[in-house]
Amino acid sequence: MRKLSLAAAIVAVVAFSACKKTGEGEYEVQKPVIGVTTDTVQTPTVEVGTDTTQVVTPEVRVRKPGDKKP
User: Fold this and answer.
1) What local confidence, expressed as pLDDT, does residue 6 receive?
2) What are phi and psi of 55, to 5 degrees?
3) Would you say the C-alpha torsion 32, 34, 39, 43 has a positive or negative sign?
4) 1 to 5, 8, 10, 70: CA distances (angstroms)
5) Cα separation of 38 and 12, whole Å?
6) Which pLDDT value is given to residue 61?
7) Mean pLDDT score across all residues of the chain
8) Minimal CA–CA distance to 37: which of 47, 46, 28, 48?
9) Average of per-residue pLDDT across 17-32
């Protein structure tokens, strides 16, 4: 079990050390292909905004048993 977790830790360190951030939403990734090639990967951007919706609710009248009907 220790060998497996040690191997997983080594793989994680190698994977994270091969990437570096070059700009907003851009990462430079080095791939081991008989030598090393460097590619720039652009991550997608997500726009977050607010949306307001008007909801019309009905008016509910509650009559007590002693009240007269209108």
Assistant:
1) 66
2) -115, 125
3) negative
4) 6, 11, 14, 80
5) 19
6) 85
7) 73
8) 28
9) 66
Which residue is it, tokens 């951007």?
45
* pLDDT band at residue 5 using 50, 70 and 90 as cut-offs: confident
* Residue in this structure with the two tokens 């008989």, named with its chain if needed: 34
Token digits for 33? 């292909």
> What are the structural domain ranges in the chain?
2-42
User: What is the per-residue DSSP string for 31-59?
Assistant: EESSSEEEEEEEPPP--------------
Q: Is the pTM of this model over 0.70?
A: no
The residue with tokens 């994977």 is: 15
Start-to-end Cα distance in the chain = 80
